[in-house]
Structure formats: structure tokens, C-alpha cells
Amino acid sequence: MKRLAGYELYQDGIQINSSNSSGDFEIVGVNSAYHCIARNEFGASMTQKTNLTKAVKVLFHRPDITNPTTVQFQTSSFMRECKPIETPIVPSPTYRWFAGVNENELKETSWLQFGEDGAIHMANLRDFPWKHTIKCSARNTFLSLEANSSKTQIILGNETALMRFRPAFMTGSGRQNGGQVLANAGEIITLKCLFSGYPTPTVTWLKDNAELPDGEWIEELGGTQIKNVANLTKGHAGRYMCQGFSAGSPSAVYAFDLIVITPPTFASELHRPHNVNATEGQTISFNCSTDVIPDTRTWFRNAEQFNCGSCSFFF
């Protein structure tokens, strides 16, 4: 094997360092993408890009005090955010909610869910067993730091006749990502959908305007969540719709797209790139047909990205 001529380090596509020895580099910049190229007289080889992101602490705006919140009706819906000072937090924090004098940790139910941003959503307060205070905590697992929000006191009305509220969408999968859920092939995921209203709405699911395929998903927490039975494949991808129903009221609907990301594989051996012998001036073609979602292909020549203005690419 020939001796390597040298290594080059790139930050966000711009060369920032070089070495003729071990290829070890000291990196001080954060929130950037890095890759390395090793070269010798036979050519070059490039590593995949590595993203370096700075971890930040978790702090809340307010001290830990009680802030009363009056709720007019016992059957009203309820939403409370859990927002630390540092947003966005890297890595994304894990959120937990606690309620009551003993600060019992809350779990998701058919009428209570946590949003992707850590907010708490309750379909109605009639089903909420703790008529006291709630608070949230955000934990940065990388730095092992945790912060608590202020407490919120829930004061219910004393009406004797319970108000009825028609279903309305509160929170669900993909809400924070433009109506899209991205998941890797092979994963087990949970899709969520919660509607406010009283009586507590029931939830049904559709995929591509049809009932869910038999044996593909299982319902949990009264139908407000579904989980795939087998590992995700491209067959799970599609347009999902959840509907909230309550007796005597019009239904509410929420829809989102599930996109299953698959690793790049060649469609067949015939579509794999092969060596081509050619004479000067001859027109040649290289096959690179992949079975991948999303479909993004980049060509390289001698480990450098190849941009050819006179080339034709057929996908």
C-alpha cells in the first residue's frame, strides 16, 4: 500500500486544515458539518459528513412560584406550554409533567397527551383527577441538567350543568414539522392524535382515505395513539387522518404524511455503476438507479463532487 500523501479537513464544505501525518485534527468550531479527505498518488477518499452541535443548558424564565389560572368550565380543554429560556435546546430535552400536592408524574391517557414541544394538552378538565397544581420539568440528558417550571394552579368553576363542547383538534404527530412525520425503516413508532371536547371525543384512524390495513397497527389509549406491529417499511408510508367524534357534535379531522426513510440500495445489479472503457469523444453512460426515500443522488469523481454542465442525468 502506498503512503498517504496527506489529509484535508473541511468545515461546511470549506477546507480549514491539512496534515501529512496522522490525520487527527483539533476542532473548536461547533454547529457545523465536517468531513475529511485522504489523498495519495492513486486518488482520494472522502469520509461522510459529521455534524458537531453544541449542547446548551436548560433554564426557565420564572422562579418556582404558584401562578393561579382560572378555568371557567369544568369541561373546558386545557393547554400549558413548557418553554425553557434556551430555545432550541440541544440535544432536545425530555419533558415530564407533575400534578397535585404530592407531585404525581402524569402519564398520557385517552384525554391527556404531551405535544412534541413538551406542552400538556387535556381534552377536558372533567376527567382530570388532581384539582390542584401542575408543573413541568425539562431535562438535558447530555449535560445531566434538569429545570422545573413554575407551578400552575387550576381553579375549576362550580357550575352544576356541565357544558358540552364539540371536538376540536389539539395536538398530534407531525404538528411541529409542517404536517410530516419522518421515520427510519425498521423502527417501531407511535402516531398520536388528541381532540378537545366534552364528552371526551373518540378517535378513529384512516390511511390514504381507507381503514387501516388489518394487522398493521394496534390502537392504544382509547385510539388516540397507534403503533406499528412490525418494523416500518415503505408500505407504511402514506397520508394518515384521525377523526374525533363526540355524540351529537360534528367531527373534527387532522391529517399528516408519514414518510419512511429507507437506506440507499441499488434497484438491481444492472443498475449498479460499473467500469466503462471509452475512447475520446465517445458518449458514455453510468447507471445509478437506487431504491431510496427520499431520492437524492450526488456524483463524485476522484472523491470530489462532480458538477458537469454538459452531462445529462436521467432518474
UniProtKB/TrEMBL annotation:
Domain of life: Eukaryota
Entry-linked InterPro entries: Ig-like_dom, Ig-like_dom_sf, Ig-like_fold, Ig_sub2
Keyword Zinc: no
Keyword check for DNA damage: no
Ig-like domain span: 167-243
Record-linked PROSITE patterns: IG_LIKE
Keyword set, alphabetical order: Immunoglobulin domain
Protein name stated in the entry: Ig-like domain-containing protein
Gene source species: Helobdella robusta (Californian leech)
